[in-house]
């Protein structure tokens, strides 16, 4: 068996392009997921019928695989006249999926804030919306940051599933290069190394952010 890892350097620019797209998908997906998750969390905490809609969304998304959700968005929606590009489908799928998990993270963070803070804010005439925006959410987001960081890392790795809907991210790029050069072990090892490097850097950055925020609260 002949292994030649030097071939990786020949195609390094292509791999870097795929890695860049992977990061872009993960970042946009998590931003979209944060927005969805925060809205769903507030809906779940409301005393209106909206909480049932949020509960159904969370139950549905957490109970089905991301891969199936991507297939439904990219291959299924065109059957009902809704055409979405592979990139938009990837971001939408990652966002909707991560949003269901982040909704529970945000809900837990909000419920961890003592009720007395809300009562004190309302007694000062701040109103429910202002209290939530200026008092509750900043503290809840700080509490939820470790779980949010973990979901970001998961989304980065889950972006590899977008390769099945023709997205030329890191995994599909590696697959294409492996099939044309017959150097499967080399390119899949390189892909694994890229993912490990990205998650390591991301983890270090997020841990640094958590430490700074915890230092400010002490």
Describe the structure.
This protein is an all-alpha fold and 218 residues long. It is built from 9 helices and no strands. It has one domain (7-217): MetI-like (MetI-like fold). Helices cover 80% and strands 0% of the residues.
Q: What is this structure, in a nutshell?
A:
This is Amino acid ABC transporter permease. The protein is an all-alpha fold and 218 residues long.
Give a quick set of tags describing it.
218 residues; mainly alpha; MetI-like fold; 80% helix
Q: Architecture in CATH?
A: Orthogonal Bundle
SSE class: mainly alpha
**Helix share, percent:** over 70%
The tally of domains stands at 1
The largest β sheet comes out as: none
Question: What is the CA–CA distance across the termini?
Answer: 58 Å
Write down how many β-strands occur, each being a DSSP E stretch of 2 or more residues: 0
Main location: membrane
Family: Belongs to the binding-protein-dependent transport system permease family.
Protein name: Amino acid ABC transporter permease
Organism: Desulfosporosinus fructosivorans
């Amino acid at each position: 068996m002949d292994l030649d890892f030097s071939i990786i350097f020949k195609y390094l620019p292509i791999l870097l392009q795929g890695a860049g797209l992977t990061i872009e998908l993960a970042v946009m997906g998590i931003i979209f997921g944060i927005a969805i998750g925060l809205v769903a969390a507030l809906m779940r905490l409301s005393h209106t019928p909206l909480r049932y809609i949020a509960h159904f969304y969370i139950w549905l998304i957490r109970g089905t695989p991301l891969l199936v959700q991507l297939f439904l968005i990219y291959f299924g929606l065109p059957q009902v006249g809704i055409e979405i590009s592979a990139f938009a489908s990837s971001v939408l799928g990652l966002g909707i999926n991560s949003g269901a998990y982040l909704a529970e993270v945000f809900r837990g963070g909000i419920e961890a804030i003592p009720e007395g803070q809300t009562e004190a804010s309302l007694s000062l005439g701040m109103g429910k919306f202002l209290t939530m925006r200026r008092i509750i959410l900043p503290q809840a987001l700080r509490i939820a940051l470790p779980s949010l960081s973990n979901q970001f890392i998961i989304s980065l790795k889950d972006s590899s599933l977008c390769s099945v809907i023709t997205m030329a991210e890191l995994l599909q790029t590696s697959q294409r290069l492996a099939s044309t050069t017959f150097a499967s072990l080399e390119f899949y090892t390189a892909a694994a190394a890229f993912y490990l490097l990205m998650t390591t850097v991301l983890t270090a950055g997020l841990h640094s952010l958590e430490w700074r925020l915890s230092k400010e609260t002490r």
